[in-house]
């Protein structure tokens, strides 16, 4: 039999896990909104997300209450997801979107700058190759 204290701790862990799963799902939603993930990858990521979510839930249950699945486990998960969605989701999505847009802009600027910096080197190497190809070596 699991003590009441252990059940309360497990319930709190499940609420926190619900928050974490909802946060990870929001991150995934933001990534998908940028259009970089196709339908095949979406199906694979959905499967991986469900598999990892179930695995983490089972791991926490094993460590907190010997893997016993009770009704309050599901209530805790759902409550965690609902509370996160109602209180934090909109703000977190905006912050993630702004952050990812800034990261994408930075990466784009770095790529453009490196392209501009290495273009003269590339042109010089092409001229050097053409110059070398112009020489005829006889053996």
From TrEMBL:
What is this protein called in UniProt? Spore cortex biosynthesis protein, YabQ
Keywords tagged on the record: Membrane, Transmembrane, Transmembrane helix
TM ranges are: 12-31, 43-63, 69-93
Key word Cell division present in the record?
A: no
Name the source's superkingdom. Bacteria
Organism of provenance: Acetohalobium arabaticum (strain ATCC 49924 / DSM 5501 / Z-7288)
Asked if the Swiss-Prot or TrEMBL record annotates the protein with the keyword Phosphoprotein, the reply is no
Entry-linked InterPro entries? YabQ
